[in-house]
Amino acid sequence: MDDPLAGVLSLTGVGAAAAQARSSVDALLRHPAMRRDAGRVAGLSAVRGAQASATLDGGDPDAVDDPVLQGALRVTAAVPEQAQVWGRSPRQALARLHMLAARDLVSDPDQLGRPRASVDAARLDQLLRLATAPTAAPGVVVAALVHGELLALRVFGVADGVVARAAERVVLVALGVDTKAVSVPEAGHLALERAYEPLAQAYAGGAPDGVGAWIRQCADAYALGAEVGLTLAEHVRTAVSEAG
After folding, report:
1. Structural domain boundaries, residue 183
2. What dihedral angle (degrees, nearest 10) is formed by the CA atoms of 202, 153, 177, 198?
3. CATH number, domain at 104?
4. Distance CA 123, CA 214 (A)
5. What's the number of domains the chain is made of?
6. If we measure between CA atoms, which residue out of 41, 38, 14 comes closest to residue 235?
7. Could you report the per-residue pLDDT of 54-76, keeping only the tens digit for each?
8. Is the pLDDT of residue 244 over 80?
9. What is the pLDDT of residues 149-187, one digit of tens each?
10. What is the DSSP string of 55-102?
């Protein structure tokens, strides 16, 4: 069977960017704090990621009662659980992420977890098939494609950015890139915010150059997110050492 993502791997710079991102995350996973305190690092990562994702969606990362932030906090906390669901039912995982992200943003609870009526259903179905099909493409590339497609589709019409970034994090965990959910890809995207929307739009246009540029952007964000994770891991290691 042909690999549907083979063409993506041939795009300029994609392979090298993906390898660099994976190397950065691997370095994080080798940090001494991962041996006993990975859970604490993951907790800090979830909060930092939620703050960054909320900021990208126009929320206030410092306002505890901000509904966008609250939704982002709920979805990042749910990533490990949904990563276990993703492989067998990505549609169920996606619906759950939206229910968590948009709970305080919609007036009609029936909207939660339900794609909007005008969504391109065929493209969404194709995405969910490709995202869980066997492929030689690195998990980094699959995560970037899931993120870009969900932004382009605007599946739910509310909290789509937060959901897209949460799904990206789910894929990174589910496909074994960040097995402990300790990197902070959302912080990487925020650091590269100036190019985030333009490249997302370029991706949505479907031209190979736009798709390649978006994947490279995401890979750069994952590398930066791993650096943030290293800072958090070092913070935890220091705190544990001082407490002991």
Report:
1. 6-238
2. 20
3. 1.10.3290
4. 18
5. 1
6. 41
7. 999 999 999 999 999 999 999 99
8. no
9. 999 999 999 999 999 999 999 999 999 999 999 999 999
10. HHTT--TT-TT-HHHHHHHHHHHTHHHHHHHHTT-HHHHHHHHHHHHS
Q: What is the pLDDT of residues 20-32, one digit of tens each?
A: 999 999 999 999 9
Cβ atoms of 26 and 140 within 8 Å: the answer is no
Please indicate, yes or no, if residue 134 is contained in any of the structural domains.
yes
List the structure tokens of 27. 């370095």
Answer for the pair 179, 163: CB distance below 8 angstroms, yes or no: no
Alpha carbon separation from 122 to 101, 125, 145 (Å, rounded): 24, 5, 16
Residue 9 above 90 pLDDT? no
Please give the Cα distance from 47 to 34 (Å, whole number).
Answer: 18
What is the CA angle 204-148-123, rounded to 5? 70
pLDDT at 1: 58
Residue 11 φ/ψ, nearest 5 degrees: -70, 145
pTM above 0.85, yes or no: yes
